[in-house]
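Researcher: Next sequence.
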Amino acid sequence: MDVLEAIHTRRTIAKFRPEPIPAETLTELLSAGTWAPNHHLTEPWRFVILGPETQRLLAARFGELKVHKAPTEAAEQRERIRADNERMFLNLPAVVAVAALQEGNEQRRREDYAAVCCAVQNVQLAAWAAGIGMKWSTSPLIRDPLSYRLLSLDPTRFDIIGFLFTGYPAETPTRERRLPLDEVIRTSP
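Model: Next structure:
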């Protein structure tokens, strides 16, 4: 698959088949992220592959946070929301936390955050070309102190910018609507 085909066909995947991603394959995909452009060659990206114990603990917290985000419901509905979201997170074939090193002045932090976003796109495109899907989750879990503790990331030095839910797609969504190009591209005088 060439790069333009990967760009045009990549979709966010929400449902995965249960088979695991081989560790060496996941490492290879993440290495694609390290080739992203970054000003002053700061290489601000950090990837943390969740092990089973960390995934279990974060799955429980994910379920709790989803209940807090949900509208006030009856107790049994809240428990179902918690259990469904915990089970979903726990059943993900692979989860990778992505963090951005945040050092220097505001401009450098902005540039480094942007570089990490570029790294995520590289990883997603490499995964798609290999038949692997991802969902970049920015749930409240990325701001939760438990996430920083479990991932051994110092919140004064790193921002968790997302979790990459990763696996072989069980379903691929159809093409999403895109704005017409004349609404997003213009030439200045």
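Model: The chain has a mean pLDDT of 94. The longest helix spans residues 106-129.
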